[in-house]
Amino acid sequence: MAEYATFWDIPGMKAGVITGDVAWNLLKFAKAKGFAIPAFNCTGSSVCNAVLEAGAKIGRPVMIQFSEGGSAFFLRESVGQWQEGGVHLGSMCWSALCAQCGSGIRYPSFGPL
């Protein structure tokens, strides 16, 4: 990974949400270059938007993460928080929201999709 000058040189790198091998290669690149990529525990859509906007503003990739409680919180009104599947469904909804919001940003962000 050290052979790449910037993270934009990583094959498959794009603006928006990245996953899989591209995300893994970005982590390896960061390790090789000696920098960290921050992960933010998002508890609401405003926090997700703020993290995505901050990453774009400083020109650096960011990671979005969701806790079990935060995932359940997303669906607390329509599905019982701790009802079977509620946490998983909530995390998928957060992921979809971030992917949709992330499609308009100019820098990569990690997504759980």
Based on the model shown, name its key terms.
elongated; alpha/beta; about 110 residues
Give an overview of the whole structure.
The protein is an alpha/beta fold and 113 residues long. The protein has a domain at 41-113. 46% of the residues lie in helices and 12% in strands. It contains four helices and four strands; from the N terminus they run E-H-E-H-E-H-H-E. The chain has a four-stranded parallel beta sheet. Strand 2 (39-41), helix 2 (45-58) and strand 3 form a beta-alpha-beta unit. Helix 2 (45-58) packs parallel to helix 4 (86-102). The chain is elongated and about 50 Å long.
SSE inventory with pairings:
Layout: E1 16-18, H1 20-33, E2 39-41, H2 45-58, E3 62-65, H3 68-74, H4 86-102, E4 108-110
Parallel strand pairs: 1-4, 2-3, 3-4
Helix pairs in contact: 2-4, 3-4
What portion of the residues fall into strands of 2 or more residues?
A: 5-15%
Structural class, from helix and strand content? alpha/beta
Compute the separation of the termini in Å. 24 Å
Radius of gyration: 15 Å
Enumerate the spans where pLDDT stays under 50 for 5 or more consecutive residues.
Answer: none
Number of strands: 4
Specify the helix fraction band: 40-55%
Physical arrangement of strands within the biggest beta sheet: 1-4-3-2
